[in-house]
Amino acid sequence: MNDQLDAPAAPAPDAAPAVSTPGGVPSAAGPAGELRVALPDTAGLRTIGEARAAIDGIDAVLAALLERRVAVAGVVQRLKPVGGFAGRDAARERAIVEAMAAHAPSLGAERLARIMTAVIEAGLDAADESARA
């Protein structure tokens, strides 16, 4: 089983770069920032090296997605009447986690909440740093 992850196209005018991934996780940037990634078949991973290479490929794609998320969240911060940490919306953050939990049931909402808190706070830090630059 080789799943495919289709990330929705970002509305930004710049296209996402192709993501070069080690470990046989092919990916390509499509039109308007679309990213298509063939996810590795876990049943086909036979060695630690193969599994680690697959993780490295997934991590490279995850980093590209996080970079784009930070950029889009930065736009949100500029558009909100009160941005930054003071403008956090706990209900919105819970909704994000619940929606993600439907796609990642093995992680569940509690683990995803910890992950997304870190992602959101890192994005807010980046937006704040960018605004000061």
Automatic annotation (TrEMBL):
Residues 1-32 are annotated as: Disordered. Residues 42-131 form the Chorismate mutase domain. It comes from the Bacteria. InterPro entries: Chorismate_II_sf, CM_dom_sf, CM_II_prokaryot. Pfam families: CM_2. Signal peptide: none annotated. Coiled coil: none annotated. This is Chorismate mutase. It comes from Actinomadura algeriensis.
